Amino acid sequence: MTEPAIRTERLRKVYTTAPPKTGRGAPGIAPDASRGPADRRSGGEVVALESLDLQVESGEFFGLLGPNGAGKTTMIGICTTRVIPTSGTAIIEGADVLTQSTLVRQRIGVVPQRPNPDSSLNVRENLVFHAAYFGIPRSIANARARDLLAKLGIAEKTEAKVMQLSGGQQQRLMIARALIHEPRVIFLDEPTVGLDPQARLGLWTILRELHAQGRTIVMTTHYMEEADRLCDRVAVIDQGRLLAIDTPAALKARAPGGTMIDLMLDGGGDGIADAARAIAGVSSVQANGNTLRVYSERGGEVIAALVTIASEHGRQVRDIHLAPPSLETLFISLTGRQLT
Amino acid sequence: MTAAVTDNAQRATAGRIFFALFLRDINVARRELPYFLLRTTLQPLLFIVVFGLLLPRMGYMSEAYKAALLPGVLAVSLAFSSVQSVALPMVADFGWTREIEDRLLAPISIELIALEKIVSGVVQGLIAAIFVLPIARLIMGPIVGLTATHFALVIFIVLLGATAFSVLGLLMGSLVNPQQIGLMFSVIVAPMIFFGCAYYPWQNLSVFPAMKYAVLINPLVYVAEGMRGVLTPGMPHMDLRAVSAALIVIIAIFWTLGMRSFSKRAMG
């Protein structure tokens, strides 16, 4: 049995002051009073992670899925030695993040949420200097930089200033920087936020290649599709707690009652809920304001019956949203909230 | 598992990583040298033009004042290029760019990352002082009592002074928010210069005894007095042993406080 790439035990992080906001390249969670329940923030304390036990195997493509403020960035911050946990342990490639932090840093590559290239240096220098911080000689670093920039499709920007790069190009530079010292484990914090669809697909291809090379990849995301398409296993976290952990297929199988159908009505849906429950194939119904959420075991077949019942109750259907069993429907059933 | 994932064969030594960090800072400093020198030495040089050239020639100041002024102006250049070269990039780094992140990920202890900032600050302070000295001498003409005989002592005092102010830069750079940077210069730096015995020897403050003792909390006093002691020993100046001891204590205090706040800012 080989050592897991990442093992955390009872990992807990409490911020006594407001944690740094995500989206600024800083580890932390986004404080959002409208989300977490009151017990998460009492007396100026914010619990970002609550007793998190995780194990990521070597070579695994692992996804951390959760909404903003779930604790994903804090988790990455701790695993990359950039945030000190309040309690618990995290072992990366056999090294403890607290007592052997330099050893951990030697073995990991980090792609931050917001690109933070060294703007005093050009693209190539960003890579060559970063390599030098890991003791890699200039000649080797130059060759690796050339290869990486070519592979990432920004070879023509080698001597460009980093401020001349687009957001997507800067993100690719961050990936090259995370790879220049050939780390065993790569952490990516919401790497596709802010990328256009084409750049996002390009990044997916790159990540799949890295995975194929046998590297361990840990990626946070709040895009279900991304986790579903890329990851071997996904941990769903919310408000610092682990809600579920499994392969995307197994997680989807756990999503309740099959297809989720949201009917947007022109008035309250309360009166309709009971009648809707009586429809064959409907497993559960929730009325929430003008929205009627129906879980159907027969996919979209029940829609006609739902519309009929609505009009019998004097309600017009304004819009219908249909979601097949997915990580998203699972997430909603686990937390009662939308992911994004 | 493929070969690509094997561990780095060459586990870098801390010394090698430290040198790489230093090389990065020197490389960046070299590119910005003209702006750096303008920023840090123009003000002291203008002071020399007025107080070391115009006023003596007009007869408002005695020629002897030049000998008091030169070491002080060198101290100001040394001190404020050291403090600025450490503090300014750090304020931006911690305030919004987070560019320092790629260095904080280097497999080296955070104390060594901070220490590297200090060393590069010292080097930049030295460069500013070396730049100002000949120009000041040129503007002011011959300076009575200026000597280079205590060369080793000059180096010693210059290194201590630059270190003290680089460490102060670490403290300020990790404490001050970007919005407060203008305030930092007008509220901390400007009074430090004017009450730093740069433009008058400390002993002459006997005319205001309260001020004479109040200014002792100002680190610039010891750098300016030390520079007088080694460059123009004929001028009144503090005992060099007292100067050295004070600077060492200042370095120890600022390092302890600076390291604490640097770690706090560096670790989310």
Structural class of chain A: alpha/beta
How many helices of chain A? The count is 11
Order of helices and strands of chain B: HHHHHHHHHH
Strand order of the largest sheet of chain A: 7-8-9-4-10-11
Low-confidence sequence ranges of chain A: 22-39
Q: How many domain units of chain B?
A: 1
How much of the sequence lies in strands of chain A comes to 25-35%
Q: Which regions of chain B are unreliable across 5 or more consecutive residues at pLDDT < 50?
A: 1-10
Helical content of chain B (DSSP H or I, runs of 4+): over 70%
Radius of gyration of chain B using CA atoms only: 20 Å
Largest sheet of chain A: 6 strands, mixed
* Assembly state (oligomeric): heterodimer
Q: So what's the overall shape of chain B?
A: globular
Order of helices and strands of chain A: EEEEHEEHEHHHEHEHEEHEHEEHEH
Per the CATH scheme, the topology name of the largest domain in chain A is Rossmann fold
Number of strands of chain B: 0
Rg of chain A over CA atoms, rounded to whole Å, is 23 Å
β content of chain B, as a range? under 5%
Can you tell me about this structure?
- The complex is a heterodimer of chains A (340) and B (268).
- The radius of gyration of chain A is 23 Å and the shape is elongated.
- Chain A has two domains: 6-247, P-loop containing nucleotide triphosphate hydrolases (Rossmann fold, 3-Layer(aba) Sandwich); 256-324, Alpha-Beta Plaits.
- Chain A is an alpha/beta fold.
- Chain A is 32% helix and 27% strand.
- Chain A is built from eleven helices and 15 strands.
- Chain B is mostly helical.
- Chain B has one domain (14-266).
- Helices cover 74% and strands 0% of the residues of chain B.
- The relative contact order of chain B is 0.14.
- At the A-B interface, helix 2 and helix 3 of A face helix 1 and helix 4 of B.
